[in-house]
Amino acid sequence: MATEHGGTQKTEHRTGANGLRIQRRFSTPGIHPYDEVEWERRDVEQTNWRTGETIFSQSGVEFPTTWSLNASTIVTTKYFRGAPGTPQRESGLRQLIDRVVNKYVAAGIEHGYFATTDDAAAFGDELTWLLLHQAFSFNSPVWFNVGTESPQQVSACFILSVDDTMDSILNWYREEGMIFKGGSGSGVNLSRIRSAAELLSSGGTASGPVSFMRGADASAGTIKSGGATRRAAKMVVLDVDHPDIREFVQTKAKEEEKIRVLRDAGFDMDLGGQDITSVQYQNANNSVRVSDAFMRAVEKDDSFDLTARADGRVIETVRAKELFREIADAAWACADPGIQYDDTINDWHTNPESGRINGSNPCSEYMSLDNSSCNLASLNLLAFLKADDTFDVEAFTAAVELIITAMDISICFADFPTEPIATNTRDYRQLGIGYANLGALLMATGHGYDSDGGRALAAAITSLMTGASYRRSAELAGIVGPYAGFARNAKAHERIMRKHAAANDELHPLGAMDGTIHARAEQEWKRGIEMGAQHGWRNAQASVLAPTGTIGFMMDCDTTGIEPDFSLVKFKKLVGGGSMQIVNQTIPRALRRLGYPEETVEAIVEYIADKGHVVDAPGLKPEHYEIFDTAMGRRSIAPMGHVRMMAAVQPFLSGAISKTVNLPEAATIDEVEEVYYQGWKLGLKALAIYRDNCKVGQPLSDGKRETAATTTTAEHAAPVRRRLPKTRPSMTTSFTVAGAQGYLTAGSYPDNGLGEIFLRLGKQGSTLAGVMDAFSIAVSIGLQYGVPLTTYVEKFTNLRFEPAGMTDDPDIRIAQSMMDYIFRRLALDHLPYETRAGLGVYTTAERTAQLNAGEYAPPQPGTADLAEETPAAAVTEDAPVAVVPPATSPAATMPPAPEAVHSSAQLLEAQQGLVADAPLCLSCGVKMRPSGSCYVCESCGSTSGCS
Questions:
Q1: Pick the catalytic residue: 139, 351, 358, 361?
Q2: Which end is more exposed in the chain, N or C (fewer Cβ atoms within 10 Å of the end residue's Cβ)?
Q3: What's this model's pTM, rounded to 2 decimal places?
Q4: Is 937 in the active site?
């Protein structure tokens, strides 16, 4: 990131008597930021991979040449306003940034934030420069709404409130629906609702909160299915001392069992499947709010009381350890519930006189008063790493000042979905500055994610970010006044500032980089507390760590939020469609910083491109392996590595962290218990886990299976071609992949070994048809010279390029490409069960059948139905088509295929080390991937939660 502009000037933005004085750090006086970059026109087209249908197209959109095609596609499709095809449609990044920044500048002037109009203009240029250079981004609602004729909603995160009355419960449904309609998410704590063990005032028995959750879940599901591009994101919390806590804990685990039974009966229960709506509680994240008293009872194996909501009497006394085990057991089974640590949350509360913190937003990073909201913005940390691999502390601090100022200004003009939320947000002015690309920054600087050095650097950066934010908040309080609720909470707020500063004092830098950052953070906390004692603070909260899904792609980040790198290999979109597999560019930068010569860097990168990991990479020292550890794959970060990173940064955040701790499929309930217990001991505010393969419909993610040996080694003087006889059995299959139709004809030797294939794609005489003819000949000759079909299956399955998506084959529902489909079909038709099981290729019947005992006689190869159509070019005079009997159904006693495998697309993720359970994107049909506690689509940028 080039931050040399104005390098001789001070980096701090001084406050004048009547407003802020903005000194330029990034932009150049007299030169507009737009004039400093090179621009180009691009055509953006997006197709639905499930159907092949074009769902969006806009020509000639203007972006800087440094922005990736993926970033420009996501911004064009998600954030440009105006009806497509009309003059009102935005056509370039300049219009988008101007629409937002001009609104912030105008509001800042109107509400007295700037000393002069020149300061306001400098503020606008500085914001523009940072956005233009992808150094930060506001959350999605800002891009959706600000500067348009729509309500100026700027917040992505909401917390609601529900009391023990029917009016309040029904109002909860309504408010939640309005928030979902606007594309945001909300959370609520239902612990005020009396339990099913208590009586109503009329004498009847109460329904209990779990019963009312059903209605809210149905409402969320209906709104989601009504055409939204992101699913309804919601959080439901219940206190651990609620009498219905056991029922709450089991809700989603029981539904998961139901899903499995229905799936095995033939219903479509995959995520996004048409029958999944028949089960309940699938539209919310559930969390148990545990107290220190409960966790101490777990430690000591003591009893714990569940108390009535109406009068506080003891309804039931339970063994705390047993209840904690039930929580861990349910989370092990279906990833819910998560844990929120109530006393820790409220011990860091700046506004206790105004009420307790009871709930959170859907991703658990925003925690504040009931009926409140938070607007988010995230910095791209890698943008502040200079060419000499040092962190630009001055630029980072200056950027934080600008962003916090802009975020606070937005509350002055923002609209809100309900009046209580509007009142509380304006009175407490909660902000959520955070960052993305931490994983990439650590890798680029030679730090392992799960290392003391990595944690020290992350903690120092987080401390500096929050310290500078609160210092600027105190400056703003001196200009436009503290937040309305400050006076009654002044002592508590200052106490929390001192707690943050004390935590910073306890940091022990391990290197020059984090030492410099830590020293600056110490200065910021000291200055901020001094200024706050004089003026108060403008904001009750300043920072969180959000998922940064869509905006992470907007900034071309390799990693989101606090997450480590997802995998070492990624896919890059190409102009004109399609994609290519590339190694993350952070890797060569890290290798060069570690001192490896260029030829070694190239060899390691080539190895990673082939293998997807660094183990045994040529020339790479084993002590450097940890730097390249990833969330999934061959060298995946241990669960406690994630927890320790969260614990390192938590003391420097106003809110919490959106993150899911991934556990391998083989993890035990004891390990889940340990993660939840250590989260409490280490001072986290919230924690969620996901055990691989714990949900239905998810792909395999624990690496390749060992392929069974199907050939013996033998030395030959030269390969011998075994030609097919003049008359041989043949089978033709018609197929469709993402709407593209083709025909596959496979000819066999009389003893049923595959000997040739013919492929017909496109019109005869076209380039595609010619390429497929040549490819068919090459494969056929290879087969006749003895190349095993298993080798082709290994090489060509999971190959990804367009067209890719849904097929019309009941055994191969999703294909990553034509090649992926063709060789899966050949494996199913011509390989014995044992061999293709080793390759992970199964029929639908084999994938879904559940058997407890007995042996399975696998179907014989070459028994698929004859295709209805046979292309003329695929059948020659000496190759008549032989009709083969239809396949028999698998015996009822077949051994179960691995439960993880439920579709052909799953093996791609097995080989690339991607995480498993993720829904298909509602917009474009691509499988999403985790981002914090939510999911994000790498193709179109849609998210399932906050961004």
A1: 361
A2: N
A3: 0.77
A4: no
